[in-house]
Design brief:
Elements (H helix, E strand, L loop, with lengths): L1 H19 L16 E6 L9 H12 L3 E2 L8 E17 L5 E16 L2 E16 L5 H34 L16
Parallel strand pairs: 1-2, 1-3
Antiparallel strand pairs: 3-4, 4-5
Helix pairs in contact: 2-3
């Protein structure tokens, strides 16, 4: 009896302590009320398909219990994303003068609006990732770059959501469930 009760009691005590410190598993952060019914407006000129950032942001909002509407009129807030830019910079060159390492840079500007009233003032986020390029594996490296770009935009969606949750939670005067301040990741 004691062999079973002791580990069970220890698990119970640790669970209570972990819950009391404010820990939440990933994806279980409470959304601010204003984001419960939201419209995502991504301004991308000459758009052929939905950018990965938009798809990822919609999916993350839905997972957290938000209703992502198809029209701004039926939403309590609009997340407006503009100037989504992707770039690539050479970090280093080999002895033959060819680039062997690149830095992928993706930036986006955002704001949250509710019926013309600005809830979150315009801001911007930037995520970078470095990768090496081998001229003998061109096709594989191009595919790797495409996957990295999707990963970067997914990470941008997560950072954006954290930033919006923090700012909107503080505006509501509710800091108890607010996530910690966002720190830009290292390249």
């Amino acid at each position: 009896m004691h062999r079973i009760a002791r580990p069970l009691l220890l698990c119970l005590v640790l669970s209570v302590l972990l819950g009391a410190c404010g820990f939440h598993p990933a994806g279980s952060r409470p959304l601010p009320d204003v984001l419960r019914r939201v419209y995502v407006d991504v301004v991308v000129p000459y758009r052929v398909s939905e950018p990965p950032l938009e798809a990822s942001l919609r999916a993350r909002l839905t997972r957290q219990g938000a209703l992502v509407t198809k029209e701004a009129a039926s939403a309590t807030a609009t997340i407006k994303l503009t100037n989504l830019k992707e770039g690539r910079q050479v970090l280093s060159v080999g002895p033959d003068g060819k680039a062997i390492e690149f830095l992928l840079v993706t930036t986006v500007e955002y704001e949250v609006i509710d019926g013309g009233q600005v809830l979150v003032p315009p801001g911007s986020l930037r995520v970078t990732r470095a990768y090496t390029f081998n001229t003998e594996q061109v096709l594989a490296k191009e595919a790797e770059e495409a996957r990295l770009r999707e990963y970067i935009q997914d990470q941008l969606a997560e950072l954006l959501l954290l930033k919006l949750e923090t700012q909107l939670s503080h505006q509501q005067g509710r800091v108890d469930g607010a996530p910690a301040a966002v720190v830009d990741p290292l390249p």
